[in-house]
Amino acid sequence: MIELKLRQAADGLAVVLPQEVIDNLGAREGDTLYLINMLNGSYRLARHDDRLVEKMELVDGMMHEEDA
User: Fold this and answer.
1) Which of 3, 4, 59, 63 is most open to solvent, judged by the fewest CB atoms within 10 Å of its CB?
2) Is 16 in a helix, a strand, or coil?
3) Residue 33 burial (CB < 10 Å; 0-12/13-18/19+)?
């Protein structure tokens, strides 16, 4: 488990990611990251990936269809 710290930012709070997490994500400053709420109540942090975005939009659309 990796501890994350919240810090005051100009317009809210910011999460500081340890270098180990940044390296594992293959992320760098300016990249888009997604915090995904999983069905079991946990969260997943992922780097922007067009395929992931398409899949998440599909799942989101299916979930809204079930609500209707």
Assistant:
1) 3
2) strand
3) middle
